[in-house]
Design a protein that fits this description.
434 residues; alpha/beta; Aspartate Aminotransferase, domain 1; 2 domains; 7-stranded mixed beta sheet; 4-stranded mixed beta sheet; 38% helix; binds pyridoxal-5'-phosphate; pyridoxal phosphate binding; 5-phosphohydroxy-L-lysine phospho-lyase; transaminase activity; lyase activity
Length: 434
């Protein structure tokens, strides 16, 4: 039976990395992964293994709690309370109610329910190219997915990505913050004219699938102003970018400024370092409106003692190993090395990022900034041959995305950029010889 299942082909809707020559990874440690022949790969992709693959403290915490008890949250348990308390210390005071779940998609689906229940409105504004999860409700608010399906639902509105490199308003615009926020205001007014009402503005604090974008500071405040005026709430999806990845702050929405506080924050991926865990944080008022329906919220695995022990251990490691400061230090160093390459290689159009969230936008020409899609794919393939795992994002699939485990270090950064330099130099020579 087991042998037979090994030979069953996977569903063609499930994709592998490097599908022409996929990797069989059998173990991992820190920022390195190992294939079945013991070959070591530098992992620049995996933002789930946040504090490092198989971190011993995290593994130990889960193992020890597993030996004692794992059950649902219908019983009192210290782990759940301690974990909510620890998370609350990382967030603004008003975000003090926590729901625990098992995946980012579950968290975003609950955020949608909370917003609708609280506002009694239905419509949602999202950014173009966004991805918020795989549930039906979230495919509906993910232009990255629904553009390839039957299309946009009438309750979904798509705002332009506040991308000052290749978006509608660029670095030379006199006030891109207001211009992008006004786009949202116009969408709201248009929806109102059609008799529709806005429940939420749903956004990744740093759009990652959209191309590793850093929205200009002040944009969220202006958008929140318009959305609140329309009776809606602001939902920050921190599923990829939270937990200190941006270095300077614990949450990426904090890059916008201290005066910005979302109404709902969703967390996933790095929260459990690979253990299925997710969370929604919100205000007392929103939680009260949700409870007022009288319909209980029950999630069989959400908030179980093992998940909470795992989450607590992740927070401990971030603190103990000063991973936020490390992300700033190594991220700044990596950005500098990449910017040096930008001077040398014209294919590098933009290097942007914060902490260990960095994007390198590859272009065919400086004027049109045409995405260098094929070149990006070729570079990724050649990097894999040199034992470096990296991937691309953005609508043009031309943005190299760096989101390594947070223990990624200076030596790794040097090795990575030296290898990129060599490959780009080879590609340029090959291009000249053709
Ligand atoms: C920004 C964002 N939100 C939500 C999700 C969904 O999370 P999950 O795959 O854990 O359901 C993802 C997953 O890639 C994501 O990138």
């Amino acid at each position: 039976m087991i042998l037979k299942s090994l030979f069953l082909p996977p569903s063609s809707s499930c994709k592998l990395f490097f599908s022409n020559d996929p990797l069989k990874i059998v173990k991992a440690k820190g920022q390195y992964m190992y294939d079945e022949n013991g070959r070591q790969y530098l992992d620049c992709i995996n933002n789930v293994a946040h504090v490092g693959h198989c971190h011993p403290d995290v593994v130990k915490a889960a193992y020890e709690q597993n030996q004692l008890l794992n059950t649902n949250s219908r019983y009192l348990h210290d782990n759940l309370v301690d974990y909510a308390d620890r998370l609350s210390k990382t967030l603004p005071e008003k975000l003090c109610i926590f729901y625990f779940l098992n995946s980012g998609s579950e968290a975003n689906d609950l955020a949608l329910r909370l917003a609708r229940q609280y506002t009694k409105h239905e419509d949602v504004i999202v950014l173009d190219h966004a991805y918020h999860g795989h549930l039906t409700s979230l495919i509906d608010i993910s232009p990255y997915k629904f553009r390839n399906l039957e299309g946009q639902k009438e309750w979904v509105h798509v705002a332009p990505v506040p991308d000052t490199y290749r978006g509608l308003y660029r670095e030379d615009h006199e006030d891109s913050v207001t211009a992008y926020a006004d786009e949202v205001k116009n969408i709201i007014e248009h929806a109102h004219r059609k008799g529709r009402k806005i429940a939420a503005f749903f956004v990744e604090s740093l759009p990652s699938v959209g191309g590793q974008i850093i929205p200009p500071a002040g944009y969220f405040q202006k958008v929140a102003g318009h959305v609140h005026k329309a009776g809606g709430v602001f939902i920050a999806d921190e599923i990829q970018v939270g937990f200190g990845r941006v270095g300077k702050h614990f949450w990426a929405f904090q890059l916008q400024g201290e005066d910005f506080i979302p109404d709902i924050v969703t967390m996933g991926k790095p929260i459990g370092n690979g253990h299925p865990l997710a969370c929604v944080a919100t205000t007392k008022e929103i939680a009260a409106a949700f409870a007022a329906t009288g319909v209980e919220y029950f999630n069989t695995f959400g908030g179980n003692p093992v998940s909470c022990a795992t989450g607590l251990a992740v927070l401990d490691v971030i603190e103990k190993e000063h991973l936020q400061a490390h992300a700033t230090e190594v991220g700044n160093f990596l950005m500098k090395l990449l910017k040096d390459q930008q001077i040398k290689h014209p294919i590098i159009g933009d290097v942007r990022g914060c902490g260990l969230f960095i994007g390198v936008d590859l272009i065919k020409d400086q004027v049109e900034r045409t995405p260098a899609t094929a070149e990006a794919e070729d570079l990724i393939k050649r990097l894999k041959e040199k034992c470096i795992l990296l991937s691309t994002d953005g609508p043009g699939r031309n943005v190299l995305k760096f989101k390594p485990p947070m223990c990624f270090n200076m030596e790794d950064a040097k090795f990575l950029v030296e290898t990129i330099d060599k490959i780009l130099t080879d590609m340029e020579k090959e291009c000249l010889n053709h």
